[in-house]
Amino acid sequence: MNLDTGGVSPIGPKGPAGPTPPPGPPEADKPGPVEEPSAAEPVASPAEVEAAARAVEAAPDVRLDRVAELRARIERAEFEVDANRIAEAILEGE
Fold it and tell me: Would you give the DSSP letter of residue 35?
């Protein structure tokens, strides 16, 4: 019979061995090296960054036209949920 000790070493003749440290994060979760932009990559000027920030602030949080379109499709029973498409988007992190 094997007992799951939950990562804690059993007490031996010399006393408790202490808990086993948890494993580190998987390799995929570790941050990689930061790449510096190359000379070929354009860098935005402060004015461009400010203009982009203003555009984002001015954009609506909800696309009312899209909401109205989807609401009408649901009411007409024309809206179908594609479970495979949703699953793929979740797995891809979209």
Answer: P
CA angle 58–60–62, rounded 5-degree value: 170
Query: Does the pTM exceed 0.85?
Result: no
**Residue 4 φ/ψ region, left for φ over 0, alpha for ψ in the -120 to 50 degree band, beta for the rest:** beta
Which tokens go with 81? 């949920």
CB 18 within 8 A of CB 27: no
Which residue in this structure is represented by tokens 């995929």?
Answer: 28
DSSP string, 44-56: --HHHHHHHHHHH
- Give the three-class secondary structure for 12: strand
Query: Is residue 85 predicted with pLDDT exceeding 80?
Result: yes
